[in-house]
């Protein structure tokens, strides 16, 4: 009887409960972790791609603007006169004029332009009537260098009839100036490129007013 009571007082052994969803939770967490890593990698690759794209655009703009080498412009801007002797007589037309030409070298590059000694030749109807010397120098980046050059213009080599015909119709002396300025453009002290600038200008000396006008350069 006591044995039966003892057995009746005992509680049955309960086995530990197992969560059937535990493995599923672990798999979900693993997938979520992998997905998070994948998103980070994609974001990282996106940042790198955007950075490379921006750098490429910067280098392209840099190459098209700063590193692009342009040909400097060499022009006649104006002039004043010293000795001014002109004869418009049909029998003995002539001119002997001292002209102080105002010349310019326009450098549009982002580096200085160093040019060598040169000359500017002046022509009257195809005949050379004078020559001016240009001393070597330089034009700074994105600037225009102006300087004076003196030339003695003489009609000694011009046929008399050609000059007489000119003076019969116009009270002026048409001139053409030509020159080639050779030099180098230096950008950021790492790139040097040879560049030659050709002058080709037309102009007219007004005899009555002793002025230089109608200047056109190309």
SSE layout and pairing:
Layout: H1 2-9, H2 22-64, E1 73-87, E2 94-107, E3 112-115, E4 118-124, E5 127-134, E6 137-139, E7 143-154, H3 160-169, E8 172-187, E9 191-206, E10 211-217
Antiparallel strand pairs: 1-2, 2-7, 3-6, 3-8, 4-5, 4-8, 8-9, 9-10
Proportion of residues in extended strands? over 45%
* Terminal-residue CA separation: 132 Å
Silhouette: rod-shaped
Quaternary structure: single chain
Mean pLDDT: 87
Portion of residues in helices? 25-40%
Question: Tags for this entry?
Answer:
3 helices, alpha+beta, 47% strand, seven-stranded antiparallel β-sheet, 10 strands, three-stranded antiparallel β-sheet, 218 residues
Report on this structure.
The chain is α+β, with helices and mostly antiparallel strands. Helices cover 28% and strands 47% of the residues. The chain has helices at 2-9, 22-64, 160-169; strands at residues 73-87, 94-107, 112-115, 118-124, 127-134, 137-139, 143-154, 172-187, 191-206, 211-217. The strands form two sheets. Strands 3, 4, 5, 6, 8, 9 and 10 form a seven-stranded antiparallel sheet that branches. The mean pLDDT is 87.
Can you summarize this structure?
With 218 residues, this protein is of the alpha+beta class. It has helices at 2-9, 22-64, 160-169; strands at 73-87, 94-107, 112-115, 118-124, 127-134, 137-139, 143-154, 172-187, 191-206, 211-217. Strands 3, 4, 5, 6, 8, 9 and 10 form a seven-stranded antiparallel β-sheet that branches.
């Amino acid at each position: 009887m006591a044995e039966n009571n003892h057995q009746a007082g005992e509680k049955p052994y309960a086995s530990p409960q197992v969560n059937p969803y535990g493995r599923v939770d672990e798999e979900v967490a693993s997938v979520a972790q992998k997905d998070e890593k994948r998103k980070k990698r994609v974001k990282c690759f996106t940042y790198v791609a955007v950075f490379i794209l921006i750098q490429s655009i910067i280098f392209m703009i840099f190459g098209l603007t700063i590193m692009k080498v342009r040909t400097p412009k060499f022009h006649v801007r104006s002039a004043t006169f010293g000795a001014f002797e002109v004869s418009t007589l049909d029998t003995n037309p002539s001119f002997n004029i001292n002209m102080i030409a105002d010349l310019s070298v326009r450098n549009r590059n982002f580096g200085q332009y160093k040019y060598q000694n040169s000359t500017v030749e002046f022509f009257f109807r195809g005949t050379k009537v004078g020559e001016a010397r240009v001393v070597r120098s330089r034009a700074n980046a994105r600037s225009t260098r102006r300087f004076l050059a003196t030339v003695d213009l003489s009609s000694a080599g011009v046929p008399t009839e050609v000059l007489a015909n000119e003076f019969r119709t116009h009270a002026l002396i048409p001139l053409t100036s030509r020159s080639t300025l050779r030099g180098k453009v230096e950008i950021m002290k790492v790139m040097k490129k040879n560049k030659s600038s050709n002058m080709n200008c037309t102009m007219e000396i007004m005899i009555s007013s002793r002025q230089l006008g109608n200047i056109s350069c190309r």
